[in-house]
TrEMBL record:
<feature type="domain" description="Cell wall hydrolase SleB">
    <location>
        <begin position="24"/>
        <end position="133"/>
    </location>
</feature>
<dbReference type="InterPro" id="IPR011105">
    <property type="entry name" value="Cell_wall_hydrolase_SleB"/>
</dbReference>
<dbReference type="GO" id="GO:0008745">
    <property type="term" value="F:N-acetylmuramoyl-L-alanine amidase activity"/>
</dbReference>
<dbReference type="Pfam" id="PF07486">
    <property type="entry name" value="Hydrolase_2"/>
</dbReference>
<keyword id="KW-0378">Hydrolase</keyword>
<protein>
    <submittedName>
        <fullName>N-acetylmuramoyl-L-alanine amidase</fullName>
        <ecNumber>3.5.1.28</ecNumber>
    </submittedName>
</protein>
<dbReference type="InterPro" id="IPR042047">
    <property type="entry name" value="SleB_dom1"/>
</dbReference>
Amino acid sequence: MARVKYTDSDVALMARMMRAEAEGEGKQGMLYVGNVIVNRAVADCLDFTKVRTIPQVIYQVQGGNYSFEAVQKGNVFYNRARGVEKRLAKKNLDFWRQHPGKYALWYFNPYAPCPPTWYDQPFAGQFKQHCYYEPKPGTCASVYK
């Protein structure tokens, strides 16, 4: 059973986002970004109580800006999804979760060492240039299911 309901267009949208955000980090890096996207769709806490679908997650606005830099800046986000990224996105949507993105709701590239917290959320781990952050224990049980 899929972690979140999705359509073919959701797979393509998520694939574009994964590529735009982490293409330089290879398939593994794109899978970690995919973890964060799916985790936000299933999380019923913090800033993610009103996002349940892949488009809602990807186009979410927080603090007056899109949550994902790739949507703000466009870069490769507006290119068509390729087969390899679609397969990775489907893998995330169906079952794939691994550390450090397994329970992460946030990631970013600090262009420096990863800080121990990100907006008061604990550091979960790093893959190449991206730092991943999980919700504080006890604040988001839904992401751990």
